[in-house]
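Q: Give me the 3D complex with adenosine-5'-diphosphate.
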Amino acid sequence: MRKSLEKAQRIVIKIGTSSLIYPNGTINLAGIDQLAFVLTDLANRGKEILLVSSGAIGVGMNKLGLKNRPTSIPEQQAVAAVGQAELMNIYNHRFLTYSQITAQILLTRDIVEYPESRKNVTNTLNQLLKKGIIPIINENDTVSVEEMDHQTKFGDNDQLSAIVAQITAADLLIMLSDIDGFYSANPSVDQQAILYHTVHEITPEICKQAGDKGSEFGTGGMISKLSAAQRILEADSAMVLANGEKPQVIFDILAGAEIGTLFCNANTFERL
Ligand code: ADP
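A: Here is the predicted complex, encoded as structure tokens.
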């Protein structure tokens, strides 16, 4: 049994596309509905909840009946524009079943890099949380680019979720993926791989154990989750990487069940 994370007051939840879209490309409504139920219940308990959700391109592909992910940037951004609006429709609908209000926040990297705009977005997020609203955050995929002197991409939503946790001084980031946690090797390649319950430090040895992404829809793979964890450790916060197949797992994680991998430095661990 792990120490209870029940005290965590401000919690960022990150959900990956693989938990929102079935392998056949259709929408996982059961998963999204459970997520809305769990997050609303936590908000009802008085917790401040922020959701970082991927899925715009996957949902857009489903809506437009596309079998393959488009390859050109303008096509991807057009599909993301369709998908982001549809994703918010689905979220709004599901959350409203539980009388929970949500808001959409679309970010680009420059916004969090410049002090005034970072302060502005932090103030907005704080204001929403104060009103009991759940912000649903995504990268502004439809316009973000990488140019030599103008980087507006976060890279992936693992980084985005860690940055959101950082700028809002969240107590906990729960990253829901298609895998049970961080293993000593990629379990889809090495059947002997062992699940880590707790990681206190991202060492070069730990990084060597991280492999590539798991699914067609996956983005960063494990290395990007470790780099998000590094950011969280530096901020003296905590992160749990767990399987998002059943979002109700969030209740058990907060209650202290040894689910997934808990990343937190030794001092934070003592404080929990
Ligand atoms: P998501 O879409 O949820 O963000 P990703 O596909 O980007 O997920 O990353 C999760 C995948 O990383 C897993 O499905 C697994 O195949 C792969 N992976 C590589 N190395 C590891 C490791 N050491 N432990 C766990 N998963 C790993």
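A quick observation: The domain at 2-271 is CATH 3.40.1160.10 (Carbamate kinase).
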